[in-house]
Design a protein that fits this description.
Layout (H helix, E strand, L loop, with lengths): L19 H8 L3 H9 L6 E5 L6 E5 L1 H8 L9
Antiparallel strand pairs: 1-2
Helix pairs in contact: 1-2
Length: 79
């Protein structure tokens, strides 16, 4: 057995979207900061989609990627 290895137990995630307002609260930032960071590719834990013929974006924030970057575990509970 290799004694130099470190093992990490990854929490279970449902894949459910982390709401923008939850991400903003955890990061202590404005919701618009999170939205613009995702759109500009600066916050890599989420993606933004703009539907054809629509002005607004839809956002998906990966709970696994958000946990890796912030340490916050989103369990899908209503905030």
């Amino acid at each position: 057995m290799d004694r130099n290895k470190i093992y990490l137990e990854i929490p279970k995630f449902t894949g459910e979207n982390v709401p923008v307002q939850v991400a903003a609260r955890v990061m202590k930032k404005d919701k618009q900061f999170v939205r613009q960071g995702i759109i500009q590719g600066l916050l890599t834990f989420g993606v933004a989609f703009k539907k054809e013929g629509c002005e607004q974006y839809d956002y998906y924030i990966s709970p696994l990627k958000f946990w890796k970057e912030t340490g916050y575990i989103y369990d899908g509970a209503k905030e």
